[in-house]
Input
Amino acid sequence: MGDYNLLINGQMVAGDATMDVINPATEQTIVKAPRASKNQLDQAVAAAKAAFPTWSRTPIGERKKALIAMAEAIEKNASELARILTQEQGKPLADATGEVFGTAAFFKYFAMLDLPVKVIDDSPARRVEAHRKPLGVIGAIIPWNFPMILMAFKVPPALLAGNTIVVKPAPTTPLSSLKFGEIVKDILPAGVLNIITDANDLGGALTAHPDVRKISFTGSTATGRKVMAGAAETLKRITLELGGNDAGIVLDDVNPKETAPQLFQSAFQNNGQVCIAMKRLYVHESIYDQMCNELAALAEQAIVGDGLEQGTQIGPLQNKMQFEKVKEIIADAKKHGKVIAGGETTGKAGYFIKPTIVRDIADGTRLVDEEQFGPVLPVIKYSDPEDALARANASPYGLGGSIWSKNLDRAYDLATRMGSGTVWVNKHADLAPNIPFGGSGQSGLGAELGEDGLEEFTQLQVINIAR
Ligand code: NAD
Output
């Protein structure tokens, strides 16, 4: 699988230690990846700090050109990046290819944005302008479900705004990020982009580092709390994109046969390992049995296997810890509901679980209340949409949610009363680089993507001139 190195100060360097990266479809070691020491983390931050004065003064037009060149480099190396992504993450090759091209598209999108000075008051009394200044060194912490595209939520807006950055991928999926570093390193001045990897032991140090001005974090709510606490000492800016327990509410006018494939895709895309996957589905009693049967049939038909094999629709869970957690949640769900599809592993090597549908289950169980983050969907019966909405809103999470109906007025009314940061109507998990995305409640703080996401990588400065 070739060599993998850290990117520090424009150079590809070996880690002070190494760590095994496992292919979740085979449980075999893919390669020994570099593992950075605390000293190497400090070197990466120092390089980013040293690169900041020049990069922040580089005209935005030059920074845009760099983002475009990075996008083109990603596209040119797409097939290699996609194969690496499938092997380390598990997702089918077609999905990995989509993620890689999506990453390039996100770089191109941010290359179109500007940070113009806004004139707030231009009167005989005063002229007041709002400027958006870069912050300094950014720490970007990434989870293992979408190693490439989630990096593209952070790197291009951070660099466009004139910041420099230290990226830390998840320990189980470092390879695509390291390969990305190798591919783009000569496009940028040394130190502007640094990529280090760890064995889950450097996130705290990056968060607490006195020379890092902001942490842009995507991961679990539990770790998000630690990031918030760790950033307090230096009053760092933080953006937190955390866990979710997205509800879908299906009203009584929906045709189960027509809609089930979309619902299935919303819940099982990336093997359910999506922050905005549909994680609990509330279905009206009048169509409940039919919807359960349609979903179970789709689950039975889905082809589960190694993402490198042609035809695979659902890969393995990404890592052993998640595999064990999902198995436990399914075991618990069997006590409180009825499994009508899946419910077991494939029995082969690899972290495979058959797509699982559980019916006759209610709120107050692990599967409904917790973030399962895997291929198992609870389908919950309701009779009053107001009651379903209240149950959807009862979660401490508030990432996404969706309403499904042929009557747009009814759906819209319920959508506006859902508590989540994003609400979709007749779809779920539709993200685009120009649409701001952020969670309410314990799903996060701040926003990513769009112009709002770009502004989060800046400091507001007001210039107020007497007349
Ligand atoms: P995780 O919180 O375990 O790890 C995320 C990252 O944080 C990893 O890079 C990890 O090494 C790092 N980390 C670990 N300890 C740290 C510490 N003390 N300080 C700072 N960083 C530390 O999450 P995960 O298991 O990799 O990812 C799954 C979770 O991510 C799910 O809850 C999912 O919903 C969430 N997620 C959210 C979004 C979103 O945009 N809201 C997107 C994808 C995933």
